[in-house]
Each structure stands twice: as C-alpha cells, then as structure tokens.
Amino acid sequence: MTRLTESAIEDFAIKLFERLGYDYIHAPDIAPDGDRPERSRYDEVLLTGRQEAALKRINPKLSPALLQAGLKEVQRNHSPELLANNEAFHRLLTEGVPVSAHKDGDERGERVWLIDFANPANNEFVVANQFTVIGHSDGGGHQNKRPDLVLFVNGIPLVVIELKNAADENATIKAAYQQLETYKQAIPSLFTSNALVVISDGLEAKAGSLSAGYSRFMSWKSADGKAEASHLVSQLEVLINGMLNKATLLDLLRHFI
Q1: Beta carbons within 8 Å of 140's beta carbon, 6+ residues apart
Q2: Which alpha helices (H) appear in 31-105, and where do they start and end?
Q3: Residue 48, CB half-sphere, CA atoms under 13 Å: how many?
Q4: Do 114 and 120 touch, CB atoms closer than 8 A?
Q5: Are 197 and 208 in contact (CB under 8 A)?
Q6: How confident is the model at residue 143 (pLDDT cuts 50, 70, 90)?
C-alpha cells in the first residue's frame, strides 16, 4: 500500500486531466524566472501569449487592433472589490468583450470572444501545478501563494483546486477551504476570472463558486452525466471526469454560474 501523500494526490489529479485532453505544465517552468517564461511578473496571472493565440483562432474576422483592444479590456481591473471584478470578468467571458471599430467614418460595435463555446476543441485547456502568485497585502507588504492546481482555458485561470492529504488528521477538506479563503485575501488577482474553486483531501471532493461559504460546497455525483458514480470511485475522480471535462466546464461557465 503506497502512503497517500499530497503530491501523490496532485499527480493522480494531473493524470486524470491529461486523460481529458488537458496539457500539463509544471508552473515553475513558465514562471518569470523559469526556463520558458510566459509571464513577466509574479503578480500577473493571465498567460497572455496563449490568450493572444486563442483570440486570433476564435475571432478570425477581427483585425489585430480590435483583438488588442479586447485584450486590454480583459487586463483592466474594474473595481478594488473582488466579487465585483469577478462579476465583470464573467460577463466578458460569457457575452464577449465589446470593442468598437471605425469603418467608412462610422463606428461599429464588435465582440471579441475569449472562449469558443460552440466548439470546445477550439480552446486550449491547461492544468498547471505550483503556480506561484505574489499579491500585495493591505499593509503594503508582499505575500506569495502557490495553489496546488490551476486550470487555464485560453490562458485564463478559471478553476483553482486545493488538495489536502486525507491521511493527515489536520489536513481536512475544511482546511483546504480555509486555505482558499486565505488565497482570496492574499492574491485576489488570481480569482478575478475564477469560475469554480475545488477542495479535496483525495477522497472527498467538493466544488463551489467564488462566493460560496463552506456549507454551499457540493460533491459531484456522476462521472458521465447519466448514472450516479460508484462509491468505490474517489469523489475527486468523479468530480474531475464529470464536472471538469472540457464540454461540461464550458457549459457550467456559460449557463450555470
């Protein structure tokens, strides 16, 4: 019997995501001081290179200038309040980013789509572990935090997953929830675009929205959306396969949040 460790649970989850077609990235490799940097600072949470590539792919008829205008809007913080920011960002995700173009002396409204909801395969899905973010605390200091797993769609962090080890009696699923609450305070920028947060101790697993209290977190009951999963399968496996597969995640994002 192999000893259950937090890193074993993390590896297990990553393998499940890879089976669902996610690309795996060890986040320190793409950190500002990593081998293949994809962000210039630790307080940046969007993978802008991936985002730009996705925008071109999803909006082939729009000019580079309009795509840049869309990107700028996405990078702008709308409010100092996390939930207000998250709500504004959710609107951009689900309704497209409004931009305007001048043509023949007229101004025309266009929309830049960040996600291709009609064709899930046209989006890029990434699971990254050990994604370090530096936040600014109210006292003016810096706090650096490293959630266990972050799911990116087209370079946008949509899901944060915090794992604890069920074999450690202090590392409960409630402790995972409290850890997420700490992250929201210390690195709110990671949650501006957040759709879901997931907590698990490797056996139990529950998901909730950004503003959900602990009692509102729920487990996911079915891996295939048809039959209830066997109790012999870990809740974490059922939740990843049933809720975080590409099509279901995008459906939840668009219609149920």
Answers
A1: none
A2: 48-58, 64-75, 82-95
A3: 14
A4: no
A5: yes
A6: confident
Amino acid at 97: V
pLDDT at 6: 81
Beta pairing partners, 208: 197
Give pLDDT tens digits for 148-180: 999 999 999 999 999 998 778 788 899 999 999
Alpha carbon distance 203, 215 (integer Å): 18
pLDDT 10s digits, 113-124: 999 999 999 999
Amino acid at 73: E
Angle at 95 between CA 92 and CA 98, to 5 degrees: 65
Taking Cα atoms as reference points, which of 5, 9, 48, 7 lies closest to residue 236? 9
Any residues with CB less than 8 A from the CB of 162 and at least 6 apart, and which? 147, 148, 176, 177, 179, 180, 183, 197, 198, 199, 200
**Distance (Å) of CA 207 to CA 136, 143, 170, 238:** 27, 25, 20, 12
Write the pLDDT tens digit of every residue in 42-81: 999 999 999 999 999 999 999 999 999 999 999 887 788 9
Crossing angle of helices 246-255 and 235-243, rounded to 10°: 70
CB-CB contact of 179 with 212 (8 Å) = no
Q: How far is CA 106 from CA 100, 102, 103, 109, in A?
A: 10, 5, 5, 10
Residue predicted with more confidence, 10 or 139: 10
